[in-house]
């Protein structure tokens, strides 16, 4: 091929002088350059492939449209190679048009391998343009075509049966049919494993590396993390020595691979390797962005998401954190790197959301929620509120587009906003999002059986807490009473429900009753104080929690100290029973 490429000016000159004589020679030379021979050690630059294929199409179109209408075979093949070059350049719609034109060439008779290659290129283009059902049909035709043909000579560079299987698996993965996809990848791996080493190195190396990178992602999606790590390490071994200058897609494959490995190592408990992989993924993606920002920025978003999660807490907490709870000991304080990554990630998502809000507004909302969490840990409460407000606004838009998909996340983020505002002493402003989070959760609980039933209890507790901080103890007590009833119903139906949630609800309930009784005593409302004390005593009677007993003892001790005679009278007027006393054993009598 090197000699042909060097001598291309000769047939070009002949074609200019007389296309009828020099045209076929030039066309054949260009097709020879576009279909390399034995040693597939490098991939030609897309710009050169595009220039050669454009020239070949122009030559064969001129010949085919002449009076003798010859060279239909050459025009059909040149159009397929042109479509492949356009695909490599990311110009998918133009490439699909070239593929359509190739299929429509009258009288074209390509060889079986060339026909299979045309199906291969068309599968890739249909997939990239979102026509996945058509792509799968063509992919199956492509696999069948390669299964019955044995490429010879230069046609060995036009794909293989193993590569066709890999492409069909890739289409299935894009369709969300991950199990089928992984099974096909495994079949492809068996075919490649049976090849002699020299054939893999000379011809199938790129196919094997791509297959291993792609199956790593599929295994990760299935939760088969150990297998994914093994496949990913094999991909790195096989790609050792490959020069990115000769393989332009190698950096892209490694960016995807290191991102998948980061999550897989984290899932297997190897946090050091997980963070190393995340660092390498970010570095590879930055290189991609320098080469092509359009394709590189989405990959950088995925890599940064993995690194921010691995250097901090999980981006999506499993439950609403309670405002009064201390930071769990396993949560690391955010460092400068994590904050910088979150800030960069939010800026990238905001930039991409301008043109693709459906995908990137929810991602931006999640990043801002994580950023708010980090600001909260560092005591920057106002910044935490600002980030949480933006997160809620973005999720409102996402929930308007897809209520079923994003209302649960909106409710969770609203609950987080309650905490952010409360810690920033915006107590009055914390009640509205708490009510909204509860309302959404109630509505979802009626229609979505997969929703954790304890969420309603948590959101009731959160609303009660926020109401209590505004001095509205009456509504807070109503929330606690409902939360207690719901939690006991859950535990009766499913005994495995956590006792800890009952403890949290009843402790808050008892503390609120004590605070209510004290407030009524201080204001001289002795009948109301006696009513609150009666509810507290009844609560203590139906539970054996020491936290509730302590609140009860404290409330009655306060009543004895603040207005013993008045509260006794109010108690006896309401119940005809004597006012309980505090005995020597520390119990309420």
UniProtKB/TrEMBL annotation:
InterPro entries for this protein: TPR-like_helical_dom_sf, TPR_rpt
Protein name stated in the entry: Tetratricopeptide repeat protein
Source organism (scientific name): Streptomyces bobili
């Amino acid at each position: 091929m090197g000699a042909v490429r060097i001598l291309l000016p000769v047939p070009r000159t002949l074609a200019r002088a007389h296309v009828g004589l020099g045209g076929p020679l030039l066309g054949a030379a260009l097709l020879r350059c576009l279909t390399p021979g034995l040693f597939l050690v490098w991939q030609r630059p897309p710009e050169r492939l595009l220039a050669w294929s454009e020239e070949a199409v122009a030559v064969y179109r001129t010949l085919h449209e002449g009076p003798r209408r010859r060279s239909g075979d050459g025009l059909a093949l040149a159009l397929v190679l042109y479509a492949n070059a356009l695909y490599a350049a990311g110009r998918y719609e133009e490439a699909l048009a070239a593929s359509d034109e190739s299929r429509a060439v009258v009288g074209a008779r390509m060889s079986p391998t060339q026909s299979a290659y045309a199906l291969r290129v068309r599968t890739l283009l249909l997939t990239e343009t979102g026509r996945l059902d058509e792509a799968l049909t063509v992919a199956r035709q492509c696999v069948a075509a390669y299964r019955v043909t044995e490429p010879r000579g230069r046609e060995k560079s036009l794909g293989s049966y193993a590569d066709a299987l890999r492409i069909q698996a890739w289409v299935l993965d894009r369709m969300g049919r991950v199990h089928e996809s992984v099974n096909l990848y495994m079949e492809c791996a068996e075919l490649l494993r049976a090849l002699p080493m020299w054939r893999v190195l000379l011809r199938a190396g790129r196919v094997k590396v791509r297959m291993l990178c792609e199956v790593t992602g599929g295994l990760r999606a299935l939760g088969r993390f150990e297998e994914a790590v093994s496949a990913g390490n094999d991909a790195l071994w096989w790609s050792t020595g490959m020069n990115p200058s000769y393989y332009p897609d190698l950096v892209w494959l490694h960016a995807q691979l290191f991102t998948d490995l980061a999550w897989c190592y984290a899932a297997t408990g190897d946090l050091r390797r997980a963070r190393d992989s995340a660092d390498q993924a970010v570095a590879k993606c930055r290189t991609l962005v320098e080469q092509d920002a359009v394709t590189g920025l989405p990959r950088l978003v995925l890599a940064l998401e993995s690194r921010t999660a691995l250097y901090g807490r999980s981006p999506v907490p499993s439950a609403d954190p309670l405002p009064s709870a201390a930071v769990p000991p396993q949560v690391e304080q955010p460092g400068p790197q994590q904050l910088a990554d979150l800030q960069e990630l939010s800026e990238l998502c905001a930039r991409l959301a301008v043109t693709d809000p459906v995908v990137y507004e929810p991602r931006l909302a999640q990043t801002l929620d994580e950023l708010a969490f980090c600001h909260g840990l560092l005591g920057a409460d106002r910044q935490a509120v600002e980030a949480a407000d933006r997160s809620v606004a973005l999720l409102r838009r996402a929930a308007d587009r897809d209520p079923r998909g994003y209302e649960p996340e909106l409710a969770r983020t609203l609950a987080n906003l309650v905490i952010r505002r409360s810690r920033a002493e915006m107590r009055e402003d914390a009640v509205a999002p708490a009510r909204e989070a509860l309302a959404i959760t109630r509505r979802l609980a009626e229609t979505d059986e997969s929703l954790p039933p304890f969420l309603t209890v948590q959101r009731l507790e959160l609303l009660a807490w926020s109401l209590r901080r505004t001095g509205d103890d009456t509504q807070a007590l109503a929330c606690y009473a409902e939360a207690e009833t719901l939690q006991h119903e859950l535990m009766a139906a499913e005994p495995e429900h956590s006792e800890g949630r009952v403890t949290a609800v009843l402790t808050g309930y008892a503390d609120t009753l004590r605070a209510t009784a004290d407030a009524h005593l201080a204001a001289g409302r002795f009948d109301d104080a006696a009513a609150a004390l009666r509810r507290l005593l009844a609560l203590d009677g139906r539970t054996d929690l020491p936290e509730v007993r302590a609140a009860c003892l404290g409330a009655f001790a306060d009543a004895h100290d603040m207005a013993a005679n008045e509260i006794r009278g109010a108690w006896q007027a309401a119940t005809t029973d004597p006012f309980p006393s505090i005995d020597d054993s520390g119990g309420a009598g």
